[in-house]
Write a structure and sequence with these properties.
This protein is mostly helical. The chain has two domains: about 60 residues, Arc Repressor Mutant, subunit A; about 150 residues, Four Helix Bundle (Hemerythrin (Met), subunit A) (Up-down Bundle), CATH 1.20.120. Strands 1-3-2 form a three-stranded antiparallel beta sheet. The chain starts with 9 loop residues before the first helix and ends with a helix.
């Protein structure tokens, strides 16, 4: 966690910096945070930190820790299951809408994202691997032409980052993800909305099966720690 610059809202920067630290595991579940400590680490006043912490608590990333301030919330397996249930409905819809709008340039962009993801899958850069996955799905949301899809999924992806960063850092786990992404793009490029939507639905179901064991382990560890 580094000092912030004045180019963006300090609340926005504090929020993003703390959120990233939670999602990438720098701040672990159960770790206690205080306004004074975070303000000192970010080299800002307490006011933007207080606003950022309040927002993160409201979004489920932090929870009360008695008189000792706030603590990083444990990974909530029930929340993740709910997110994947939502994804299984929203993302096939996004693919259908995107397929109808897809151009040759869009197909080239999709293939480029898949190729980049496959290259990263062979690396150990968990943050870059996860960002590539986010970028792929965000590309479909944008191409769908429905702004509510991206808005709906934006916060949910922040929660997903907490578990998926552990899964996607393993080449054996991330390689199939990009094979599935490639199949989705090719179905879209062929104009086959039904097949593309089914590929996306299957991808979401299998993705949850990959992540669920990690969620269960993290949830059990959090309960023991509590």
């Amino acid at each position: 966690m580094q000092s912030l610059s004045p180019h963006k809202s300090l609340v926005e920067q504090a929020y993003r910096t703390i959120l990233d630290a939670i999602c990438d595991g720098t701040l672990r579940p159960g770790e206690r945070l205080t306004q004074d400590e975070i303000a000192a680490r970010l080299n800002v006043s307490r006011q933007p930190v207080m606003s950022a912490l309040a927002l993160l608590k409201n979004q489920g990333f932090l929870q009360d820790a008695g008189r000792r301030g706030l603590a990083v919330a444990p990974i909530d397996a029930a929340r993740f299951e709910a997110i994947y249930q939502l994804r299984s409905a929203v993302e096939p819809l996004a693919v259908r809408l995107a397929t109808a709008r897809m151009t040759a340039a869009d197909a080239a962009r999709g293939r480029e994202l898949v190729a980049q993801g496959k290259r990263l899958a062979a690396s150990s850069d968990a943050r870059a691997i996860l960002q590539a996955d986010v970028d792929f799905h965000a590309w479909i949301y944008a191409l769908s032409g429905n702004p509510l899809i991206a808005e709906t999924m934006q916060l949910n992806w922040q929660h997903l980052r907490r578990a998926m960063s552990e899964v996607l850092r393993q080449p054996a786990m991330s390689k199939p993800v990009w094979e599935e992404h490639g199949q989705i793009v090719e179905a879209m490029a062929a104009g086959d909305a039904d097949r593309a939507a089914q590929r996306m639905y299957d991808h979401i179901v299998v993705a949850y099966q990959r992540v669920r064991p990690r969620l269960s382990s993290a949830d059990a560890a959090a309960r023991v720690a509590a």
